[in-house]
Structure formats: structure tokens, C-alpha cells
Design brief:
Blueprint lengths: L2 E6 L4 H16 L3 E6 L6 E2 L25 E6 L1 H11 L6 E5 L9 E2 L3 H10 L3 E5 L2 E7 L2 E8 L2 E6 L6 E7 L5 E5 L1 E5 L7 H4 L11 E7 L9 E4 L4 E5 L5 E5 L3 E5 L4 E6 L4 E5 L5 H9 L16
Parallel strand pairs: 1-2, 1-4, 3-18, 4-5, 5-6
Antiparallel strand pairs: 7-20, 8-9, 8-19, 10-13, 10-17, 11-12, 11-16, 13-14, 14-15, 16-19, 17-18
């Protein structure tokens, strides 16, 4: 009897309904089904008056979700997928991502494909694609204040109405560099199609073992994005008198006060995506982001006078 899991966004009626259907049908097929809410992967935000709010990464794994679980299904949009991987990555559980939201860039399939997809899962007719994650840690005086597992990106930026930020960034054993900007993005290849893309960063295919650093609205023309091996940790120290805000994957974060610093390290836990077909990253770029679409004014022939 295979042990399987379901993680869903209980704020979306379609996801709630789908979770009930999946649970019933998987149970009827003899599966040991366990259900969790996607909110369990949201870490929330600390406040300047309560900066110490560390939630250990391993503690987010839901009850009964362990290495004996064959797979789990996540029902929601991209935010739910990001949250779910924080919950299951430490347990090494592969996730089938089912879109009940809008964009669904990280999702593999849709609700209307439920019957076919369920048969594929139970027959084992799928492959597992591993994507790198990073660990974000905030420190003060060698005390670990906050940590999170990250699939997309980490953003360290100013609060509204404050002045420009000044960062000292050290990548691996290289000499530190100074960056003046509104903020800094540290992104995985998966996150290269998210905030870093909007900030001018390149698209990186998922199989490339790199991390990228993108300054947000830098003050200097010389401050441009850089891509480096994902085996190299990053340390960011802010040389500001005002507090900064650290946000991970758009839904968890903490304040970084003066003299605090942030460390970004490669995660020992990859995100395991269940893939039902052959790799289609470029097709997803085309369908979701419009990359590579033919130009409407593309000439077919030119006649010279």
C-alpha cells in the first residue's frame, strides 16, 4: 500500500474540492493518504521589536510526511508550490504540482487532467527532476536569528522612503565588493524566471548548477548581475543605518538591522519535481512568458525597387 501525500491551498475553493477528490480516489486505490495545508510552509515575517523568530528548516515537514512517502501532490498556484517544497524537501518527497491558480509557471499539470495523471502516478510512469535550492540565514553577533529554505530567490531591500542601500557582498573566497542599489536579489536557476528576470537578470535553464546575483536599480552602470557556481556561499553585510527587509520566495522574511548580516548557502535538499513527460522548459517559457514567439511584422520576402 503506497504512502502518498496531498498539500493544498485552503484559500482556493478549487484546490479544496480537488484535495477531497484526490484523497477519495487515492484511498479507493489502496493508498495510505495524508493531507496537509500549504500554509504550513509559510514562515511569516518578524518585526523590528521581535527579530528572533527562528523556525528550524526541518521543523516544517508535516506529520507523517517522511522518506517512506512515495510522492505528494500539491494543489494551488506558484506560491503554494514554493511553500510546499519548504515542507517536503527535507524529507526528499517528490511533488506533482497541479495548477489551480493563474500563471502556474512551476506547475506540471491541470485539474482537468486528473484521471490520466492519477493513473500515471500509480503506475510509476514519471520521472523526477531535481532542482537546486538555497538556505538563507540571518545573523546578529554570531546568533542565528532566522533561516529559510528557498527555491526561487532571496531579496534584501530597503523599506519604503529610506535612502539607497549600500551592501558589501562576498562570494565564496573572493574579495568582497561594494554595491549601491535599492536592493539585491540572490536567485536559483528556478527563480531566474521570477523577480530576477523583471530586474534584468538572464533566464537560466534548470539543469545549470549556478546562482545569480542581481542588483535592483543599481546606482552605478558598473553594477551588473553576475552568475557564479552554486557551490559558493554568499555573505551580504548592509552598511546602512536603517533596517532592511529580507524576503524569501515572496512570502517569508525578517528585518535585517544595522550590523546584521545574511548568509546564502547551497541547500542539501533539492526540490524534486515529478515530470509526466519529456523536458519542456522552452515550451513553458514560450507559453507562459511569450519567449521566442514570432514577431507579428516578420517579413516573408522583400522586393527591391
Amino acid at each position: 500500500m503506497p504512502k502518498v501525500g496531498i498539500i493544498f491551498n485552503d484559500m482556493k475553493p478549487a484546490a479544496c474540492e480537488a484535495a477531497d477528490i484526490w484523497q477519495e480516489k487515492l484511498t479507493d486505490r489502496g493508498c495510505d493518504v495524508h493531507v496537509a495545508n500549504g500554509l504550513g510552509g509559510l514562515l511569516g515575517y518578524s518585526s523590528p521589536g521581535r527579530p528572533v523568530c527562528r523556525t528550524p528548516i526541518d521543523s516544517l515537514v508535516p506529520p507523517y510526511f517522511d522518506k517512506d512517502m512515495a510522492f505528494a501532490v500539491v494543489l494551488g498556484g506558484d506560491g503554494t508550490v514554493l511553500s510546499a517544497f519548504r515542507q517536503v524537501a527535507p524529507a526528499g518527497i517528490p511533488l506533482l504540482t497541479v495548477n489551480t491558480g493563474h500563471m502556474g509557471f512551476l506547475t506540471e499539470t491541470y485539474l482537468n487532467q486528473l484521471p490520466t495523471v492519477m493513473e500515471q502516478l500509480l503506475e510509476g510512469s514519471y520521472r523526477v527532476e531535481e532542482r537546486s535550492m538555497i538556505v538563507i540565514k540571518a545573523y546578529h553577533a554570531d546568533q542565528l536569528l532566522w533561516e529559510a529554505l528557498c527555491l526561487n530567490e532571496m531579496v534584501l531591500n530597503r523599506e519604503p522612503l529610506t535612502s539607497m542601500c549600500h551592501f558589501e557582498v562576498a562570494v565564496g573566497n573572493h574579495a568582497p565588493v561594494d554595491i549601491a542599489a535599492d536592493g539585491i536579489i540572490i536567485s536559483t536557476p528556478t527563480g531566474s524566471t521570477a523577480y530576477s528576470l523583471s530586474a534584468g537578470g538572464p533566464v537560466i535553464t534548470p539543469g545549470v548548477s549556478v546562482t545569480q546575483l542581481i542588483p535592483i536599480c543599481p546606482h552605478s552602470l558598473a553594477s551588473r548581475g553576475i552568475v557564479f557556481p552554486d557551490s559558493e556561499p554568499v555573505k551580504i553585510t548592509a552598511a546602512n543605518t536603517d533596517p532592511l527587509v529580507l524576503v524569501v520566495d515572496g512570502n517569508a522574511g525578517c528585518y535585517v538591522m544595522p550590523e546584521d548580516w545574511v548568509v546564502i548557502e547551497p541547500s542539501p535538499y533539492p526540490a524534486k519535481f515529478i515530470r509526466l513527460g519529456s523536458p519542456e522548459f522552452f515550451r513553458v517559457l514560450r507559453e507562459k512568458l511569450g519567449w521566442g514567439l514570432p514577431h507579428i511584422a516578420k517579413p516573408t520576402s522583400v522586393e527591391l525597387p
